[in-house]
Amino acid sequence: MKWSQKLKRTIIFLLKMALFIALFLIFFFVFGQKFPWLLGQDGLNRTMAITMLTFAVLGISLMSVYGGYAVGKQKSKPIVYSMILATVITDLVTHLILSIMNTNDGLNKYFVYEEPLLLLLVFVLQVFAIIFFAYFGNFVYFIIEPPEKCCVIASCENDLADTIPKIKHYKKQYKIEHIVHFSNAGLYKCIEACDTVFLCNLPLEKKTEIVEFCYRNNKNIYYNYEIFDVVATNAKFTALDDKALVAHMVKDLTFEQRVIKRLMDIFFSLLAIIITSPLMLAAALAIKIDDGGKIIYKQKRMTKYGQIGRVFDVYKFRTMREENSVNKSVTEDDDRITKAGKVLRKFRLDELPQFFNILNGEMSLVGPRPEMLENVEKYTDELPEFSYRLRAKAGLTGFAQISGKYNTSPKDKLILDMTYIERFSIWQDWKIIFQTFTVLFNASESTEAFGEKESYAFDEGCAAEDTVEK
Asked: How many domains does the chain have?
C-alpha cells in the first residue's frame, strides 16, 4: 500500500511538472520565433528574466487558486476548465509584461501590444496540452488506483437520497459496496470489508463510535459538516495555566478589512458594469422582444445590517412571465420561465443587475447568497441556525455559489456560508472571485433546479451477527 501511494504521488507530480513545463515552453517558444532574445540567443537579458519569472510565479499561484492539477480528485472537464482559466490569465499578464518591457528607444518608442495573433496561437496550443494532460493524467491515475470500495451508513432513506447520487457522480473514484442502517448488526463487518466510509446524519454518540473504529482500522472517513465542525475550523489550541483548551473567538471583520472589502466592491462593481454593459443591453432587448414586459425584476431579500437582518430589493433581469412571478423556488421544467429567461438563467446573466446592488452597498461581491424572505422564514423554521448567515453581508458569489448548486439543500448552503464567514480573509475573497469564473463553464449543473429525488433502500447484506471488536 505504501509503495502504491508513493508511486501514485510521484507519477502525479511528474505529470504536473510536465504540464507546467509544456505550457511554459509553448509560450516562450512561439514568442521566441518573433523575439529570439526572449530565448536567450543573445545571452541573458533583463526582459527575458522578468518575463519568465512572471509566467512561473503567476502560473503556479493561479493553478493553486483554481485547485491545481487535481487528477484523481476531479473529473477531467473541471480540471480542463480550471487549468485553462489559470493559463489564460497567466498568458495575458505575461504578454502585457513582455509588451511593456519591449518598449524602449532601441525597439518601440511607444507602447505596442506585441503580436496578439501569436498570443492566440499560444492559447490554442496550450488548450490542446491541457486537455491531453487532464485526460491522460486521470487515465493513468485510475489504472494505478482502482475505485475505493465504499460503505454508506445512514439513519434514514431520505439521507441516502441526498448522498448516494453525489457519490455515484464519481464512479471512477468510488464504488458503493454496502448501504447500511447504523443499527445494522453487521455494521462493523461491512466497514472492515471497505476502504472508505460515508456517514450521513448519524446520532452523535454512534457517529463518534464509528469514526473511532474507522480511524483505528485505517479507513477513509467522510461525514457531513455540522455547526460544531464549522466552529472548530476557526478554533485554536490554548493553555489556561496547565489546562489544554480549545478556544473559539467571536469572528468579525476588522476596520481595515471592512475598508478594503468595500473598496473592492466599488472597484469591481464599476468595472463589471462597464464591461458587461453590452451584455446587459442585449439581455434587456431579448426580454422586451420576448414578451414586451418589464426588464428588471425586484425581489425582497435579506442581508446583514449591524447585528440584525435588513430587507432590501435585489435587482435581476426578469426571466419569468410577469403574471406568474410568484416568490417560490424554481423547479425542473418550470413553465413560468420565458424563452429569453432560460438562456439568461443558464449562464447566470439574469444576476448582472446585482452589480448595482453592490455599488449601492446593499450587497457585497463575496458573501452568503441572499435568500427570498419566504425561504428565510421556511428554512429558519426547519433549521433555526439558518439565521447565522446574516453574520455577513449578502454577496453575489461565495462558497455556496462555487461549490453548490441552485438546488443545494438549505443545511448545506448554511454550512458553506458559515465556513466562509468563519474563515474570512481578503485573500479568500480574491480566490472566490477567481474561482467564480469556473462556474460559468459548468452552468448546466450549477443552475440545476429542484426536482424529485431518487429513492434508495438499505441493503441487508450485513445482517449477520456482528462480532468485530469495536
From this structure: 3
Q: Crossing angle, helix 76-101 and helix 426-441, to 10 degrees? A: 120
468: helix, coil or strand? coil
The model's pLDDT over 220-235, given as tens digits with 9 standing for 90+, comes to 999 988 888 888 877 8
Q: Are residues 359 and 339 in the same domain?
A: yes
* DSSP per residue, 28-54: HHHHHHH-GGGGTTT---HHHHHHHHH
For residue 159, the enclosing domain spans 148-247
CA angle in degrees (0–180, nearest 5) for 458-459-461: 150
Query: Is 80 exceeded by the pLDDT of residue 463?
Result: no
Give the model confidence (pLDDT) of 360-407 as tens digits: 999 999 999 888 888 888 888 888 888 888 888 999 998 888 887 666
Helices (H) and strands (E) in the chain, counts: 16, 10
* Residue in 86, 209, 200 with CA at minimum distance from that of residue 154: 200
Contacts for 97 with CB less than 8 Å, ≥ 6 apart: 50, 51, 54
pLDDT tens by residue, 425-457:
999 999 999 888 887 766 555 445 445 567 787
